[in-house]
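Notes taken during the Thursday session

The instructor put the following on the board and asked us to keep it in front of us for the whole hour. The protein is Alcohol dehydrogenase, C-terminal. We were told not to look anything up and to reason only from what is written here. First, the residues (347 in total):
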Amino acid sequence: MGKDLAVENLQVIFKGYTDGSPVETDMELKHGNLIKLEAPQGSNAVLVKNLYLSCDTYMRGRMRDRHDSFIPPFVPGSAIEGYGVAKVVDSDCPDVKSGDIVSGITNWEEYSLIQNTGQLKKIQHVDGIPLSYHLGVLGMPGFTAYAGFYEACAPKKGDYVYVSAATSAVGQLVGQLAKIHGCYVVGSTGTSQKVELLKNKLGFDEALNYKEELDLEAALARYFPQGIDVYFDNVGGVMLDATIANMRNHGRIALCGILSQNNRNDPQSFRNMFSVISKRITMKGFLQSDFLHLYPRFLEDVTHYYKQGKIVYLEDMSDGLESAPAAFVGLFSGKNVGKQVIRVASE
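Then, after some discussion, the predicted structure tokens were revealed:
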């Protein structure tokens, strides 16, 4: 196929801003769009064939018309943007060659012209590690877990660690890193199936189904009678409030996400904030981009742990770009088991 030939490029388009819970009709499949398989001369851009696309909860915030976040909102009428793994079809960038496999921000479509090539990372194919893992355990969620646990949580061996949304792309790795570090780890999740996965596959010491608990404070006191040293918070809201009540003196809380608040317009208030003072608790919000200097060490450490069998990873793969809207919406009802990925094309 000559690269000057235009081919049809199926896309997932963002239709318009929404404050409610995401639904599939917030997005639409667009057929008939043509794209030339070339990077224009002098553009320093690359033309890629997307192989895998990542569904991430932070993308929910980009569906609101808000400009006060760390990342701008989506553009209505344009393809949705997110992390992906792609094969370079044509390159006008001296650092990237045709045939390279790269990860970084791309569009939800079959082919993408990427102008900001500085954000792309070249992927070295390692035997036994699927390329899609560069969107999960070896990608942004994995690095979020690594940086958040080691930097924001300041863990010590023997710490009592609690992880919410523990089967999520981030949570599952936090728990396993904590076990490797010599901590006692409990995770929460939303189904009995996921509770079993946490205990039997991911190696957590204990796990609870928060949907079965009428009193979260009492439930956490049951699992942590001695209190919690480290809380890795992925959900915020009443779970964070209940955890604060169960923290030990000088406990540390890493604020990573607020899943429980994604579709709320009324901020939730807290009853237990005085404990932050009386127990001298440290609460630290962070973004993985604050710690990019640690990325090479993260890649080396986690690859090593995975190859040694010290880390396992749960991935939920959906096939075809047309499956992307349903897969994304499913994140917010806990439909996925592990990291949600869309397979756009075979490697």
